[in-house]
Amino acid sequence: MKAARFVLLLIWISLLSVSFSAQTDKKEDDEIIRVDTQLVDVPIVVTDKSGKPILNLKQNNFIVYEDGKAQEVSEFAATNAPFEVALLLDTSGSTRGDLSLIQRAAGNFIASLRPGDKVSVIAYRTERDETQAYAVSEVLNSLTDDREKLKSVLNAVKTSNGTPYYDSLLQVAEKVFDKPAKDDFRGRRALVALTDGVDSVSAAEFDEVKEELGKAGITCYFIQVNTRDFFEDNLLGDCQSAIRFSVAQLRRYYRVYYPKTNVEKTFNFCEIGDFERLAISKGLYELADKQMNALARASGGRVFPVADLTEARNAFKSVADEIGTKYSLGYYSSNEKRDGTYRKIKIELKGVPVGSQIRAREGYTAPIN
Fold this sequence. Notes:
Blueprint: H1 2-36, E1 39-47, E2 62-66, E3 69-71, E4 73-77, E5 84-89, H2 99-112, E6 118-128, E7 133-139, H3 147-155, H4 165-176, E8 189-195, H5 206-216, E9 219-225, H6 228-233, H7 247-257, H8 274-299, E10 302-306, H9 312-323, E11 327-332, E12 342-349, E13 357-360, E14 363-365
């Protein structure tokens, strides 16, 4: 009997060991899966039928779908959580004479943010070498909530003789938001750009910018300054004194609007007549508008058109107000394939007033092994 009991005890201990080992392996496997699976961040704004933000919603008010399949929400942040903001100031072209106005509007925007919100400023300046002057984009400071430091940064903003707009957007993704967000800021990162959106000298192109901003999950807001009238007033007439298109702009115009035609192309500005100059300008501004709205819509942001810089202050206030009313949620996709495909995101609301509207990130591109 004692021998039998001893054998049974050994079997029982052995079974416990196997069970514990299996549980440990499963736990480790779960952790590995969780580490290797991308957390998808989705910033959200909810408004009533009159456009007023709806506050105090809970996680159970939201249902998230990816490619039509319901997902389990893993993280949720209410509207009082802090934000990280990349503030892009276009100080080129027609805005160069209004630098102080830009600085004041940007200063008011920063002052209207909440304590704990962090800001990084990006602006343009002119550099010179032995043969030429050229415009560059520069990240003036890393993300900080030090308001005195940000005042000093704004006072140091300079102007440029060109618009490296795409380059500056790329810097937002690759320099300002190059590291994963800390827990307090997950899904709560935004680009706020004061610009007309017409690039002239960038090395980067829009498709690259769109891809990188999409990967980073940054909500894009644009205060779109109307500079077209000023530009075209100075575009016509004597080619020596007129504002000129850059070669990069002419190449972009022909590539977008005449990709497969035999239209005569010239990159010598003085050979372009007034009528054609206006047609090129119209095309470049329409392209800028299309690209700006595409970035805003895909990210859950907005475009705020303004007639001139005097209206920028109110637009900045509208952006700050919206940032202060954003929710964010995060989920681990049930689709664990790392295949680089684009996945569509849809958010549904429940338990909210009839006529409520939602604006959120439209999708993301899955990582690739």
